[in-house]
Amino acid sequence: MLLFPIQMFYHIVRAGLLSLLPSSKKDLSKEVVLITGGGRGIGRHLAKEFAKQGAKKVILWGRTEKCLKETAEEISLSGSECCYFVCDVANREEVYKQAKVVREKVGDVTILVNNAAVVHGKSLMDSDDDALLKTQHINTLGQFWTTKAFLPRMLELQHGHVVCINSILSQSPIPGAIDYCTSKASSLAFMESLTLGLLYCPGVSCTTVLPFHTNTEMFRGMRVRFPQLFPPLKPEIVAQKTVDAIRTDKAFLYLPWTMHALVILKR
Ligand SMILES: NC(=O)c1ccc[n+]([C@@H]2O[C@H](COP(=O)([O-])OP(=O)(O)OC[C@H]3O[C@@H](n4cnc5c(N)ncnc54)[C@H](OP(=O)(O)O)[C@@H]3O)[C@@H](O)[C@H]2O)c1
Hints:
Keywords: Signal. This is Short-chain dehydrogenase/reductase 3. Belongs to the short-chain dehydrogenases/reductases (SDR) family. It holds the Pfam family adh_short. By secondary structure, the chain is α/β, with parallel strands linked by helices. It has a single domain (26-266), classed as Rossmann fold, CATH 3.40.50. Helices cover 48% and strands 15% of the residues. The protein contains 8 helices and 7 strands. The protein has helices spanning 3-20, 41-52, 65-77, 92-105, 129-157, 178-197, 235-247, 259-266; strands spanning 32-36, 57-62, 81-86, 111-114, 160-165, 204-211, 252-255. The chain has a 7-stranded parallel β-sheet with strand order 3-2-1-4-5-6-7, with helices on both faces. β5, α6 (178-197) and β6 form a beta-alpha-beta unit. α5 packs parallel to α6. It is globular, with a radius of gyration of 19 Å. The structure holds NADP nicotinamide-adenine-dinucleotide phosphate. NADP nicotinamide-adenine-dinucleotide phosphate binds next to α2 and β2. NADP nicotinamide-adenine-dinucleotide phosphate (NAP) binds next to α2 and β2.
């Protein structure tokens, strides 16, 4: 009882002081990065950013071979090692099978980026049941399978990072995307639980990124109130800030940082 407030005070002061100091960045030159949904959108920019910041190898997963091939070729042309595998993260058996293929052909994945997601974009009553299920299978359960496939080896090696590209909608849902908001809220709970569970596992950590509306295909045409005040983010900026957050071992990243206020106001 006596120690608890003292410890709290110590950790708050320590965190405050550490946030003022420039943090050292992890070297990526030995990292093998796997990005789900790496063929297009934010995933594509993440792949390019990891390659730019010196990752040893970048592996792309997705369903559309054309996009994966184009992105892998672009990265390979810039001089970095990049390959792709067609894999639907909603299909548990396929995830485990392709994870084995990756281990055999490329090596141990040390940074897993769970980025793949879909949005159905209709109200509950207008939504087809299968479409509602599909969103949960891809956005939420897909992460269970990929994490189960790659985390055990990271723990063995005492070296690894699990990343989730979540969304601010996990904490501040909107109508009209009920499938997506539910899946992202569930995925946030997954990451919070995983992050706490890995706190005492040396060398293995987590980063959850919660971006605001970003300029990709996913929410193309979505109208935001006060667009001048809240312009959409550029996917390349989301990618760059995500890689920086991974390199500085940041557990949670809100993009833009002003979204902290939204979460506090909502609470
Ligand atoms: N755009 C935004 O406003 C925004 C805001 C906040 C957070 N986010 C999050 O950022 C991440 C990337 O979104 P984005 O904006 O880049 O969307 P996007 O352009 O629609 O890209 C989605 C990616 O996910 C892949 N994907 C979808 N279903 C898949 C499956 N079953 N298996 C494997 N890959 C699958 C897609 O590739 P294939 O179709 O080829 O499989 C594609 O590469 C998502 O997690 C999203 O929730 C986006």
